[in-house]
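Format notes (please read before filing issues)

Several people have asked whether sequences and structure tokens are stored in separate files. They are not. Every record keeps both together, in the order shown below: the sequence lines, then the token lines. Line labels are part of the format and must not be stripped during preprocessing.
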Amino acid sequence: MPNIFGSRKTAPLAAVSAAALALTGCVGGAPIPSSSAPITQAEAKQGAEYHPQFLEQFGGAMSGPQAAYVEQVGKGIAVHSGLGNARESFTVSLLNSPAHNAFAIPGGYVYTTRQLVTLMDNEAELAAVLGHEVGHVAARHSQRRQQAAQRNSILGILGAIGSSILLGNSGLGDTLSRTFLQGSQLLTLSYSRSQETEADNLGILYLTRAGYDPRAMGTVLASLAEQNNLEARVQGRNASIPEWASTHPNPASRVREALAKASPLAPGVTNGDTFLSRIDGLLYGDDPEQGIIEGLRFIHPDLRLTFTVPQGYYMVNGTRAVSINGQVGQAQMSLGPYTGDLDRYVRGVFAGVGGENQRLAPQEVRLTSVNGLRAGVGTARVNAQNGAIDVVVYAYEFAPDRAYHFAAVTPAGRANVFAPMFQSMRRITSQEAANVVPKRLQVVTVGRGDTIAGLARRMAYPTAQEERFRVLNSLGSGDRLTPGQKVKLVVRAR
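Then the structure lines:
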């Protein structure tokens, strides 16, 4: 995801309370509705109000030919929903986010991230994802879920698909930890199984009406499942949330049902080559303007800072924070209003972590220095539902009016697991900043003699190159390349 460093403005998450939706449900046997009521004036007003906030939350809308192409496909599928009788009834945005994410809000506003687009193999899959999101809007699912979300004290229904839904809560489990995790996008999944089923069915209906291959819903879900598994293996975590533990099953459990639903329907077009040529060059992974994750290291070339997380932990570059997750506790790195008083800053962070339901303050704020930076640290112990937990806030002054901080939550007595990370925060040199180069998607044509292993070596990763290449191109263990076939690579942008 994009993070707070892309903008110094920090609108509260509570403002983003319109319902986004997750492409992580299940396909079933529910009947496919044939039509839906048009967008109402109230829905259009609500969407227009929340649209700018969602753009800010997810890194902003991209522009240029790739964004125009996504908009074209999205409007083309949305007109088959009955929500609007013209393409102008819909607003489709390509978001500058490295998360595999898609959602929509009332009023005809539909979104997909660039990272999710890079995982797709053809235009039909793009239409399937956007059609699923439109299906949630057509069925008015967000309106039904907003009240329930408010009862659960969720600061916004930010549904995330792919790896974003897998982070979870490591058992800390009370109001304090839930409030803490919301800032890093680790939010409760929003939609029920029946609602996901209905949105899938509607998406397949729209694909058929538009002349696309309806099997694309199943194939894009298969790609998401493989991406989930790959990310879990690379990061050393479990690949999925057990279905009984969540209202949303793993995408893998939906593939067979989606393909079965589509099999009796007439096949349509996929437009694979057109799609690949249109997304060639798309930014992949983190945007340097929002900070880059390189293994255990986070580096921000514009803000001239870097830190390293402990072995066994992984990061997610979020809109409001960089989240750090592992077996023993979680943390996030963010910023807040700073007036030159580190003691006051640390205490303010504690108040924000605790929220309205938990008055939280450190026993003391200790002033120190880390790698030449003025720093302040405070700790508090809280009795939580599953046992006592420690909350640590470590703040750093980078300028008289600018400070950043870690907020960490661990089981009581285990906060030292983050000590190396706290001590790793430092400024970077101008040369280090210049060395940060983004990754981009490159579409190449397979030549005679090219192999998966050979092309995979061109992937801009030090490890798991062939695994990443296979997942990116939906290639199974027994698949082979053929001359003339187009495939995707991830390369450095130099």
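For reference, the curators noted about this record: The chain is about 35% helix and 20% strand. Residues 439-492 form a domain with the Membrane-bound Lytic Murein Transglycosylase D; Chain A fold (CATH 3.10.350).
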